[in-house]
Amino acid sequence: QVLLSEPEEAAALYRGLSRQPALSAACLGPEVTTQYGGQYRTMHTEWTQRDLERMENIRFCRQYLVFHDGDSVVFAGPAGNSVETRGELLSRESPSGTMKAVLRKAGGTGPGEEKQFLEVWEKNRKLKSFNLSALEKHGPVYEDDCFGCLSWSHSETHLLYVAEKKRPKAESFFQTKALDVSASDDEIARLKKPDQAIKAFWAPGDAGVVFVGWWHEPFRLGIRFCTNRRSALYYVDLIGGKCELLSDDSLAVSSPRLSPDQCRIVYLQYPSLIPHHQCSQLCL
């Protein structure tokens, strides 16, 4: 243990540590066979680093080439230099590797001036760009590592992301409608659904979406550090509109993944409201 007595020493240590980037995401591209029979994949990596001069966290990407013989890695090395992805909040390559989706922020720094755009790129050109803020279908899209999600459908025709629910426009208290106590059982049952949905991905055949649903009861705990918060795994049928429970809703679940053969879901499960970061059970 080293104690720093001088502020200059502590500041110099912090400046040195802030220059060390942290890996935030990585994905493998499609397999390519060279004319000589060699096989390789492109690995796209994303990093974050603190820029003290700009007083902000910056994001940059770097490409790697990974050559293999089917059983082991023969050679791996960087392809070019790192490039800052300014304004890029989320990005995800399509399953075939031919397209890339990017969630980007643009506009001013004042409140209400910043906008979010969803872009679709194909190799060296931009195919489409959607101004999500102008559509007014929902609030800001989540882009952090806890709530953020950007997923391609297996058919590469749809994109899935998680955003804030659109807030209704403010109106006078005397014009607010009262709760209809004569609502049907189906309408009341909707209130029993989870309060927050995160970590969503497409189900096989793109017929539905699987996600982790968090509850705000018995009390609202933080998600980033309180992994013992009550939650469950759900499936939403996009055709019929029904929401099905896939796991025990009295426990806590996290990190769901679809198996490579798209036949099973693997996730972690543990009792809710227990001490933080306890051992979890691997479920299939």
Automatic annotation (TrEMBL):
Residue span(s) of domain Acylamino-acid-releasing enzyme N-terminal: 43-188, 200-237
Origin superkingdom: Eukaryota
InterPro entries: AARE_N
Alphabetized UniProt keyword annotations: Hydrolase
Keyword Oxidoreductase: no
Signal peptide boundaries: none
Protein's name according to its UniProt entry: APEH isoform 12
Species for this entry: Pongo abelii (Sumatran orangutan)
